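Milestone M4 deliverable, item 7.
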Amino acid sequence: MDNADYHAHPAISKSHLDLIARSPLHYWARYVDPARVVPEPTAAMRLGTALHTHVLELSRWDAEIAVAPNCDRRTKSGKEAFAAFEADSAGKTVITADDAEVVMAMGRSIMRHPGAAMLLGMDGKAETTHMWTDATYGLQCKCRPDWLTDDGSIVVDLKTTRTPARAVSDRASRHSGIGCRLVGICTGLPNPPASGRISSSSSVWRPLRLMRWRSTRQMQR
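Output delivered:
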C-alpha cells in the first residue's frame, strides 16, 4: 500500500485520535463529512516528506519528489518553464531548490550521527503498513512506522524540530505525542515488544528526532 492509499484508508490512526481529542466535530469534518475537502500539504509537511524519502527510500526520490526550477514566473519564458515543470511533476511532492538543499544537508547530518546511522543501518524496511482490529472496540486500526527492523524489535520515527536544544525538543516531542504514536505502532505490529522504552537522539546540523521503541529483552542482551 502506498502512502496516499494508506492515508485515504478509513482505519483509525494516531492522527485520527489526535483530531477527535480536539473535538468530535473536527474529526467528522476532516474524515467523515461527505463534502470534506482534503487540505493541501504545507511547506513543512512537504519538507518532511522529502526528508523521509531521501533518508529512508532514496531509490524512490525521482518518482516521488520534484524540485521546482528557479525561474522568474513574471516573464513569458519563466511561465512556460514552470508550466512544463508542473506537467512533468503531477502527482509528486514539490519542493523548492532551497528546501532540496536543506534536505540533502539533513540527510548528511543524520548519517554522521552515530546513533542514527546505527539504527538506520540495521536490516529493516521503511513505511510498511500494518492493519488490525481493536479488541476492545472492534474498530479497524492502522499504523505505518517510518522504519521497522526485520526482527520487529526496533521502531524508528524520524521527526524534524526547530532547535537542537534538548529541553525544547523534548517538550516538542511530548506535545506532538510521539510516545503515543510509538505505542500505537507497536500495538499493530505482528510481534510487538512486550515492554520497552522511548529514547531519542538529535543530529548536529538541523535537529532530527529519532524515537525508537525497543523491547526489554533486546536491551538486556
